[in-house]
Automatic annotation (TrEMBL):
The keyword Hydrolase applies. Residues 1-27 form the signal peptide. Keywords: Glycosidase, Hydrolase, Signal. It is an enzyme of class 3 (hydrolase). It comes from Saccharothrix violaceirubra. It catalyses: Hydrolysis of terminal non-reducing N-acetyl-D-hexosamine residues in N-acetyl-beta-D-hexosaminides. This is beta-N-acetylhexosaminidase. Gene3D superfamilies: Chitobiase/beta-hexosaminidase domain 2-like (3.30.379.10), Glycosidases (3.20.20.80). One of its GO terms (biological process) is glycosaminoglycan metabolic process. Coiled coil: none annotated.
Length: 516
């Protein structure tokens, strides 16, 4: 039987230490937090921001302080100077936390005299800042001055993630999403402590990353998208801009070049990549499984190495995703041959291999990470990989795919993996989902958003929220806190915050959203 501890709600505040709740009737009720923290002690009193509040940062933490000030200044109207000299107010401090907090966790303490966030790293401080945002009224997210009493309730929170890898994927190949749209999504991911953004940069319908040595990949291959729109691509400068923007929010970008299938945009751009030497026309439909690079040609591997070299040079993160899924147009023998030549190229340029789970049958290198996207709870290829020592990234399509419709009335999205309502996205255990893959073999969780029907940021909002918050909690919070009824109550409180942020979310009938 799971031991559950709940964060304080409207009527009764709770003190939570190691999962044991103790009543505290005099304490200020705590806002409902997502993801739920590991340990919460609710106390009486609290700290109210004022025009004299300053943000004090330890050496090395100024960037997090400036980020926090950027969130708070527009809505409060306060100057909130960031200083290295302690002045009370809000303090962001490196060091002084228990070892159990780790590199990504934090402690947050609120008293009448101020707010202190402590962590072993700036990544942990940044996570603590996201919790602090949720402790303030939702109006703090607005971009103009609000006349609100900015009180943070008295509390001590000790928190750290269940999984080190908490990701979201955005497909920019099927429909191109410009830099501003990607940055907007990055900001949304940061709020829920997601720390990896997987960009699906290439597919049959479009090539979105500039490769200097193969310029037609973007000028031709990037010139369209699903439905025949104008498409687009990121210059290297724009891609690096996205990477830097994400890094400032403690999010690492994982780029994907899908190989050897899902390559029609490349095949159309360069005839020599085809076995018959004939370039096919660009495709704007959503069919899969028909394309393949020519495995027997030397030029194929010169092409792949050039792409990997240039993409790796622009990507400071440790992973490069090589796709590998739905390669029906490639024979099993050719698939093995292709991967045996391509996977070492990723390591040659200083990256670790991540790919859709099919590829892992071709390698014994346990640093390679299979991303499980199947719909069943048993997969022999992934089970064997886990037994060899591979870590698995969990993205079961019928639980985590944010492009699946909520129900038959959803106006956009697909349904091949099934309808996914909020409860479906929440009610599964990443650490026990796959037979033979124990939690110790799970690297983390990722929520992919494919964009066959997703054309705008408004579409992203509608399909990602509220399900993204459910996946984020599964990835961050201890399994002992998992409880649908408690989660749906806490999730309802996020609605007002999303409205303040301009997120046009799906108002699931499973959630009792506030009516005001």
């Amino acid at each position: 039987m799971k031991v559950r501890h709940r964060v304080a709600s409207v009527l009764v505040a709770l003190v939570v230490v190691g999962g044991a709740p103790v009543g505290s009737a005099s304490a200020t009720p705590l806002p409902r937090l997502v993801p739920e923290p590991v340990s919460v002690q609710v106390k009486s009193g609290g700290y109210t921001l004022s025009a004299s509040t300053k943000i004090h940062t330890s050496p090395g933490a100024r960037g997090v302080g400036e980020y926090l000030a950027g969130i708070l200044r527009p809505s409060t109207g306060y100057r909130l100077p960031v200083t290295s000299a302690p002045h009370g107010g809000i303090s962001l401090v490196l060091g002084g936390v228990p070892k159990a907090v780790g590199d990504q966790g934090y402690q947050l303490t609120v008293t009448r005299s101020g707010v202190t966030v402590r962590a072993a790293s700036t990544t942990g401080l940044f996570s603590g800042v996201q919790t602090l945002r949720q402790l303030l009224p939702p109006a703090v997210e607005k971009r103009d001055r609000q006349h609100v009493r900015w009180t943070v309730p008295g509390v001590t929170i000790t928190d750290h993630p269940r999984f080190a890898h908490r990701g979201a994927m955005l497909d920019v190949a099927r429909h191109f999403h410009p830099v501003a749209a990607v940055k907007r999504y990055v900001d949304q991911l940061a709020l829920y402590k997601i720390n990896y953004l997987h960009l699906h940069l290439t597919d049959d319908q479009g090539w979105r990353f500039q490769v200097d040595s193969w310029p037609r990949l973007t000028t031709h291959g990037g010139s369209t998208q699903v439905g025949g729109g104008p498409g687009g691509y990121y210059t290297k400068a724009q891609y690096r801009e996205i990477v830097a923007y994400a890094a400032a929010r403690k999010i690492t970008v994982i780029p994907e070049v899908d190989l050897p299938g899902h390559t029609n945009a490349a095949l159309s751009s360069y005839a020599e990549l085809n076995c018959d030497g004939v370039a096919p026309p660009l495709r704007t439909d959503i069919e899969v499984g028909y394309s393949s690079l020519c495995v027997s040609k030397d030029v194929t591997y010169r092409f792949v190495e050039d792409v990997i070299r240039e993409l790796a040079a622009s990507t400071p993160g440790e992973y490069l995703h090589i796709g590998g899924d739905e390669a029906q147009a490639t024979t099993d023998e050719d698939y093995q041959t292709f991967m045996s030549k391509v996977l070492p190229l990723v390591g040659k340029y200083g990256k670790k291999v991540l790919g859709w789970h099919e590829f892992v049958k071709t390698t014994t290198d346990t640093s390679a990470v299979p991303q499980y996207w199947g719909r069943s709870t048993s997969n022999a290829v992934v089970q064997d990989a886990a037994a060899r020592g591979h870590r698995v990234l969990m993205s079961p399509a019928n639980k985590t795919y944010l492009d699946m419709k909520y129900d038959p009335t959803t106006p956009i999205g697909l349904k091949w993996a099934g309808y996914i309502e909020v409860k479906d996205a929440y009610e599964w255990n990443p650490g026990a989902h796959l037979t033979g893959v124990p939690e110790s073999s799970v690297l983390g969780v990722e929520a992919p958003l494919w964009t066959e029907t997703i054309e705008t940021s408004a579409h992203i909002d509608y399909m990602a929220f509220p399900r993204l918050a459910a996946i984020a909690e599964l990835a961050w919070s201890p399994w002992s806190t998992h409880d649908w009824e408690g989660f749906r109550t806490r999730l309802a409180a996020q609605g007002e915050r999303w409205t303040a942020l301009g997120i046009d979310f799906y108002r699931s009938p499973q959630i009792a959203w506030p009516t005001k």
